[in-house]
User: Which sequence fits this backbone?
């Protein structure tokens, strides 16, 4: 007798709702109509969407910490006078200083500086990844050159056609990378506009930012074309390395203002067989 196995679809999950103080409710809706999503999948996506929604709550917590620190100091002052001991005041001032430094992170221009540092870090990491990809493309260029040379030596039209197709695809891949770099250039242009505004509030920062922007404009002027129809991988990587170096300067500068520790990450030197 044949056994019938029925795998039932999961029931339609209830709406996930997050109530935010002063901001209303955050609801998650299905993001596909092709199939019934599993509740676990919906919940994980909802948790990801909660992060930006919960970010402002941290600022409220910092404000509450500051109020508590002030109240503690107001209470500690008469206690110190009565006991003739400065200990309670010293202790409360330490907490007050920590709360004040945390609160300063949400007072302009500090949030904008932190945003700039975070964006610059992401772009730097992306540039590092692009340089690694270009190194892999260099290996592919060597393979294509070898295949084309073998096709010409053996007079093999099929291998020649395959090699030329691979060459075109490789140039198309580099063209896609150059489009990404162009987008990064536009984002960096916005970042420098924000930094110019911030620089008016920081003594001596305007000249330094103007110098970085001039160097950045020169480095971002990248020409991908090369000899024999192959991209100039080494030239592109050198330009990106110069951009990355400027980004580390901006990271270090912003981190120092924010009181954050920063170490210049190591970056390998690339050698290309097909510059």
Assistant:
């Amino acid at each position: 007798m044949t056994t019938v196995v029925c795998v039932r679809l999961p029931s339609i999950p209830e709406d996930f709702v997050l109530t935010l103080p002063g901001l209303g409710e955050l609801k998650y809706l299905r993001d596909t109509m092709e199939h019934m999503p599993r509740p676990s999948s919906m919940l994980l996506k909802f948790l990801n969407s909660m992060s930006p929604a919960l970010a402002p709550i941290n600022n409220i917590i910092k404000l509450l910490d500051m109020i508590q620190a002030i109240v503690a100091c107001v209470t500690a002052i008469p206690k110190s006078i009565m006991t003739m001991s400065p200990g309670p005041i010293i202790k409360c001032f330490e907490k007050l200083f920590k709360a004040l430094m945390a609160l300063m992170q949400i007072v302009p221009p500090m949030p904008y500086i932190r945003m700039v540092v975070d964006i610059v870090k992401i772009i730097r990491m992306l540039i590092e990844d692009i340089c690694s990809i270009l190194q892999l493309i260099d290996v592919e260029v060597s393979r294509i050159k070898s295949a084309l040379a073998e096709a010409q030596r053996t007079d093999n039209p099929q291998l020649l056609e395959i090699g030329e197709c691979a060459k075109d695809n490789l140039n198309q891949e580099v063209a896609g990378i150059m489009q990404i770099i162009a987008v990064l250039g536009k984002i960096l242009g916005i970042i420098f506009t924000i930094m110019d505004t911030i620089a008016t509030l920081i003594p001596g920062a305007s000249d330094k930012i103007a110098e970085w922007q001039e160097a950045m404009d020169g480095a971002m002027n990248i020409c991908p074309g090369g000899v024999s129809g192959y991209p100039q991988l080494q030239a592109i990587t050198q330009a990106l390395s110069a951009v990355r170096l400027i980004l580390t300067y901006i990271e270090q500068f912003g981190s120092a203002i924010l009181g954050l520790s920063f170490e210049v990450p190591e970056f390998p030197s690339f050698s290309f067989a097909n510059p």
